[in-house]
Task: inverse folding
């Protein structure tokens, strides 16, 4: 294989290629992207492209990859270069993957490997009926599942065929759903693609104005997919692609008919998808249904759907049931917006936990005391959610009092402090800052710091305390309290933040954090201290680095050896800066002599020039 120069022109197959653009590696790199291009080069060089062929302006092949079966990859070229591509791999949409890169590089450097084939439609048109039957028999013999496709309708002019039997579509969907051995993302993506082909049949019927058969396809595909979702599902929601297409199609069917009975059937089909999605936790399968129904349904139909929503409202007080009620409640309010008077609206809000809407309507009605009473009944998170509504209605002082009341209930009682959402205190602090009450903001920031002490809280306290000239006093109190509590890890971080390397080195040696998580945190902080100490305390930095290096080597593994080598480089530079190359030579010699059998360590040391 010749060396790639990055600018070699596209060549010819077995006929003149004057109708195709001349590609360069730079063109391919720009289309694919740097990372996938580099990986695609390896695929090309290892000969992973199988059965390359050209049909008109489209290049096609199979590419060996991580799956047991090769991926199907194709790219279409145009006068200006690469137009579009597609690959059956998980990231192949658009044709920017490494497999597409391998295909294009094969075309660039080995154009004669491509078999020139006529367009599929041309190849079929020139064959006789007997030839086509024989060809289909051969296809079915190789891929027996293709025989199922023979029962699918070929969509022609509206009215040219009898009404579509939903059982035909149901069998097709079940064949797709259960004919794959489930092995992860790639398989569910394949399932989604084949389901989309069935949805496309519905789109074909719709394109012919045959809305009833189109609806049969959409409703049946959606129903079967949702019924099987617990058994076959993808992590990225790819099975939802087909359902979303069905929802859109059913909405179009609803818009195209005035038949009252059939409209009810369509509305029910849409609502069933929506209800399934809500009950499943809102994963996006029926997210567009409310908008479609609100847009297309008549006033009478909206009342009918509202009845279905009320029937679906769950009872009980679990988190999930409250969530379901809130979602249904939002749809119910929208459906009955024109019929509900204020009291009925408020009642729906209370029944469905729509506290945001409840408080907003009460404040619109200037029923401030009722809004405040409702807010007092809310949990911490919900209270925060409605706080902005009070502010928008010029009731900021009121909601501040409500939140302050809630925060004060966290004061210590017989069994200790109650757990409160710290965001309540954050809200009060930000409110105090907004009105210029820095002393109050500092007090609240200090409360937050001692609830969850960390460096960010320390930084905020420093900023606020300096504005009111209280920092020296407050800093001393903080350090004393943390020292008494044995918070040496945080003290070390704070001393680093303040640039006090000597004190950071002192508290570093006092850290004791049990468990492997503590070991990781301690190790990372020790390296931070070492780097900070390189300037003023280089020998202390060397000591910390050498301890880390010995731990990494003892843990074994090339990755650990490579990390140890990076720290050794810093140690070498520090010893040279100190004018002490002898100790460096002794250290590196000892490491090599003590670990003569660790070949990977020797390779990493050599790579680092050590």
Result:
């Amino acid at each position: 294989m010749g060396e790639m120069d990055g600018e070699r022109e596209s060549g010819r197959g077995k006929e003149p290629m004057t109708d195709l653009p001349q590609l360069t590696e730079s063109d391919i790199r720009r289309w694919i992207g740097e990372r996938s291009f580099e990986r695609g080069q390896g695929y090309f060089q290892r000969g992973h492209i199988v059965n390359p062929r050209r049909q008109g302006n489209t290049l096609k092949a199979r590419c060996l990859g991580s799956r047991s079966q090769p991926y199907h990859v194709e790219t279409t070229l145009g006068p200006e270069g690469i137009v579009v591509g597609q690959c059956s791999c998980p990231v192949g949409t658009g044709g920017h993957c490494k497999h597409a890169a391998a295909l294009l590089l094969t075309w660039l450097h080995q154009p004669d490997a491509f078999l020139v084939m006529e367009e599929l439609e041309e190849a079929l048109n020139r064959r006789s009926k007997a030839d086509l039957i024989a060809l289909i028999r051969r296809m079915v013999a190789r891929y027996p599942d293709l025989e199922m496709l023979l029962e699918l309708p070929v969509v022609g002019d509206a009215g040219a065929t009898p009404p579509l039997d939903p059982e035909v579509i149901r069998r097709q969907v079940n064949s797709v759903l259960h004919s794959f051995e489930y092995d992860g993302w790639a398989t569910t993506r394949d399932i989604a693609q084949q389901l989309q082909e069935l949805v496309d049949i519905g789109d074909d019927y719709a394109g012919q104005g045959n809305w009833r058969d189109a609806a049969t396809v959409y409703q049946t595909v959606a129903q079967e997919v949702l019924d099987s979702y617990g058994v076959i599902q993808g992590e990225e929601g790819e099975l939802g692609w087909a359902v979303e297409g069905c929802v859109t199609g059913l909405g179009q069917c609803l818009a195209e008919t005035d038949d009252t009975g059939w409209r009810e059937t369509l509305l029910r089909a849409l609502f069933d998808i929506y209800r399934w999605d809500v009950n499943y936790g809102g994963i996006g399968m029926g997210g567009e249904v409310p908008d479609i129904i609100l847009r297309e349904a008549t006033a009478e139909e909206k009342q009918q759907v509202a009845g279905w929503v009320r029937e679906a409202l769950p009872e009980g007080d679990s988190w999930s049931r409250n969530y379901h009620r809130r979602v249904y409640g939002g749809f119910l309010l929208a459906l009955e917006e024109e019929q509900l008077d204020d009291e009925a609206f408020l009642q729906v809000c209370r029944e469905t936990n729509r506290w945001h809407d409840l408080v907003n309507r009460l404040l619109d009605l200037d029923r401030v005391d009722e809004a405040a009473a409702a807010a007092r009944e809310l949990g911490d998170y919900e209270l925060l959610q409605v706080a902005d509504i009070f502010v928008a209605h010029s009731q900021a002082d009121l909601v501040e009092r409500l939140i302050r009341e809630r925060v004060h209930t966290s004061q210590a009682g017989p069994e200790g402090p109650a757990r409160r959402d710290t965001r309540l205190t954050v809200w009060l602090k930000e409110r105090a800052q907004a009105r210029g009450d820095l002393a109050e903001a500092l007090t609240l920031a200090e409360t937050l710091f001692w609830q969850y002490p960390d460096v960010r809280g320390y930084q905020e306290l420093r900023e606020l305390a300096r504005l009111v000239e209280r920092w020296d006093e407050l800093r001393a109190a903080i350090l004393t309290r943390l020292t008494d509590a044995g918070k040496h890890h945080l003290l070390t971080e704070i001393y680093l933040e303040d640039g006090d390397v000597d004190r950071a080195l002192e508290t570093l040696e006092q850290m004791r954090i049990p468990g492997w998580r503590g070991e990781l945190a301690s190790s990372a902080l020790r390296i931070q201290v070492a780097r900070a100490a390189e300037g003023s305390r280089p020998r202390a930095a060397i000591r910390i680095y050498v301890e880390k290096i010995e731990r990494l080597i003892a843990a074994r593994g090339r990755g650990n050896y490579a990390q140890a080598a990076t720290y050794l480089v810093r140690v070498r530079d520090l010893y040279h800066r100190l004018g002490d190359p002898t100790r460096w030579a002794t250290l590196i010699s000892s490491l090599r002599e003590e670990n003569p059998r660790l070949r990977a360590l020797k390779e990493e040391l050599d790579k680092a020039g050590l």
Summary: The radius of gyration is 35 Å. The beta strands are 49-55, 58-63, 71-78, 81-87, 115-117.
